[in-house]
Structure formats: C-alpha cells, structure tokens
Amino acid sequence: MITIVLGAQWGDEGKGKLTDILCAEASLCARAQGGNNAGHTIVADGQTYDFHILPSGLVNPKCLNLIGSGCVVHVPSFFKELEDLQKKGLDTTDRIHLSDRAHIVFDLHLLIDGLQEGELTEAAEQEQLNNGQVVVAKKSTGGAIGTTKKGIGPAYSAKHARSGVRIHQIFNKDEFDKRLRVLARGAQKRYGSAIEGYDVEEEIARFDTYREQLPAFVVDAVPLMASAQKNNTNILVEGANALMLDIDYGTYPFVTSSATGTGGAISGLGLSPFKIKHIIGVVKAYTTRVGGGPFPSEALNDDGDALQRIGHEYGVTTGRRRRCGWLDLVLLAHSHAINHYTTLNLTKLDILDHFDTIRVAVAYKPSHPSSPSHNPSPSHSQNAPIEGFPADLHVLDTCDVVYEELDGWKGEGKVAGVRRWEDLPDKAKRYVEFIEGRVGVKVGFIGTGVGREDMVVR
How far apart are CA 311 and CA 360, in angstroms? Predict the structure, then answer.
C-alpha cells in the first residue's frame, strides 16, 4: 500500500508533521524529487528536527528511508544533515538509502544558482530603467525567481541536458573526474571571471573522500522499490516543495525545477499507480509563499502581517520571511485537478483563532477586460470569472480576487490544542466544511498546534 503526502500550495504547509504521524505505520519512507531546498520541521518528544534532503521518516526508529532516483543530492549537505540528527540523539544507522540514479548537486551548481539569480535581477532592473520606471523588481512577473540558491535548478538543468553526474558515477574515479571537469569548463566559458573562485580540483579531492563513505548508503532503488511493492509493504512517499512550485503546473518560471506532484512521485520512485491507496494534499488554513512570483490572495496589510507574526512564518531552509495571505480555493482546486487528492490535511487552523473575520478567495476576475494586453483568453467574457488557475502571470498579476467572508470563532472558543472534531468551535467546523464543499475532498486531518499530538483525525 502506498500513501503519498504532497504540498498543495507553495510549500511550507507542514507536510513533515503528517509524515511523522503516518510513519508510525510505515515500513518505508521515501523522497521522490527535489533536493535540500525542501524544509520539513518535526517536533517529537520535545525535540525539534529539521529535514532538508533526508526523509522525515528517520524519526521513526523502525522505518527504512530512501532518497529516490528523481532527487538531486548535495553530498556534503547529506552528511551534514545526518551528523546534525545524530547529535540530537537520532540513530540513523542502516536506515537511510540513496538511489544510485539520483543526480549530484555540486558546489559549482550552488555558485551558478547565485549568478543566475543575479542576472535575472539585473535584467529586470535594466528593463524598468529602459522604460523610465522606478527600479522596483515586481515579485509577481519580474526579477529573480527567489530560489534557495542550493544549486537545485542548475543540477536539474545539467541532468536534462545529459551533462549531469549521477551518484553511481562517483565510484568510477576516471569517469567522475572527467565529467566534473567538463561541467567546470562549460561554466567557465559561460560565466568567465565570475566563477574564478571555484576550484574544480578541490571539489574532485572532496569526492575522493566521499567515495569511501558513500557505499554504506547507495543502493539500486529499482529492485528495492519493486520488491517493496510486490510484498505490499506500507510505503509512505514524502513530497517536497508543492504543486504550485511544479515545473509544469506551478507559477512558471517562479517554480522549482522538478515535478512536485503525483506524477513526479510515480516517476521519481518507480511506483505502480495501481498500488497507490491515498494521495493526501497538505494545505495551510491560509496561504504563504517564499520568494518571487504571483500570489493573488496575498494580504499586503495588517491581516498579512498578523498571519506572518502569529504563524511564525519563516522558511525552514532559508530563514526568509514568508509572504502571507488568505486561503485561495481557486489555487486549491487547480492543485486537486493535477494531484487528485483523496484526502486533505488542513494545517495551522489554530492561527485563525485570532481573527474576527476570515476571508477566502473563491474566484478570479479579469480587472482590465477591455485591455488587449491583459485579455486572459478569447473564451472569457468581460465579467465572467476566469476559468481555472491561469498560466499567464500577467493575468494573475492583474486579476481581481473575489472573496467570501466567514465569521471567525474568536469569541466562541479556540482551535489550539483541540484533538477531537466535536470539540472544535462550531464556526471552525463551518470553515472546514466550506473548504470541503468547494474543493470536493474531505479534510481528514486538521492541525491544531505545533506538536505531533495536536491533530484532529476524522
């Protein structure tokens, strides 16, 4: 049986907590895509653990863990994260495997990532200057992507250009050294003096050490996963990032560089679609995102500031302040249309304890229907809601968001710490049921606090 846990928004929804709970029944927990640009926080037995490339299932001492073939791995960060967990008393011995088909993120990729971000910012500023505008990079349609600068994008670019290096190639020194030098020469031609500080021979020397350390972790993941599925092993797939950061279905180009949805989980781990029992979409009770890109329901006012402050909205991986806004059901419906959720996990509902009125985005309308440059589609009438979640960032940037306002439960009671559905305030229940009615998926899990025990299960 396979259960897949996926982020339904722009990440940071709280997937790690649900993964931790479900891992109690799992024999294998696996990451399918992404790298150490992910960030999952788990609080267990009073100890806080931050996971980036390693699966959160390591918290369960009986669970085997796999970094799958669709992932990209910065090897120094892999070992550093293991070391940090062990310092906190978590024994990971013989419980973490790394697919030999996963691609390597080199320090060279980290350097390139930062250079590319700088180029995008400079290009946006120059364009605004050329147009006689004040130089303010728009978060929605221009400027830097806002990546974590972990080298993920350049590593995936090398993979798809067929110039990347896979984990198994580390064990052939001649081949490995040759391929890394070719990558370095290509970067030198492209970036010139900007990468003068990078020494390819130093990186090669570091991998001479990793070559001795990695055999204890590296496996051929194909027979491992095939055997687990044949034997009906309870497999938990821990999605990284989220659907709205998907390379195909997210707010491109303000996305990550991998397939973050159900399809990415299947291809990244070699899953049989016929073995999948649950696809759980994790959705925050409001909306946040880090970095650039469109955010139709962003609250650039006191409400957004309150959500950020009360929710302690800072990125696990980068520490950056998250942009905050109201729950967006247009976005969530789009996410469900791609991932086909069987259940939703609504997280951080307790943060809304502090609001008298709660707004929910239910539709988008074109704000300039008469302007050809912002005509979303020939099929849209001037006053009709936009169908679906638009691919065009200019449409997202200029659309009017239609909200419904629901009464908060501030004077009725608190969600914080509640563990049974019947104990939730009535207006909090209505909020949950409103989401279910609009999206068409049951909310089976409701997060009511930071601890693993702070969860309503329906």
Answer: 17
Buried b (16+ CB within 10 A) or exposed e, 81-92: bbeebeeeebeb
Alpha-carbon distance of 287 to 261, in angstroms, equals: 18
Q: Is the separation of the CB atoms in 352 and 447 below 8 Å? A: no
Cβ within 8 Å of residue 174, ≥6 positions away: none
**Rounded distance between C-alpha atoms, residue 351 and residue 402, angstroms:** 23
pTM for this predicted structure: 0.91
Which positions are catalytic? 12, 40
Cβ density class 114-149: b for 16+ within 10 Å, e for less:
ebbbeebbeebbeebeeeeeeeebebbbbbbbbbbb
The three-state secondary structure class of 313 is coil
Check if the beta carbon of residue 35 is closer than 8 Å to that of residue 150: yes
**Block means of pLDDT (10 residues each) for the chain, length 458 residues?**
97 90 94 89 80 91 96 97 94 96 97 87 62 51 70 96 98 98 96 92 98 98 98 96 97 96 98 98 97 94 97 80 97 98 98 98 84 48 86 95 97 95 98 98 97 91
**∠ CA 347-268-444 to the nearest 5 degrees?**
25
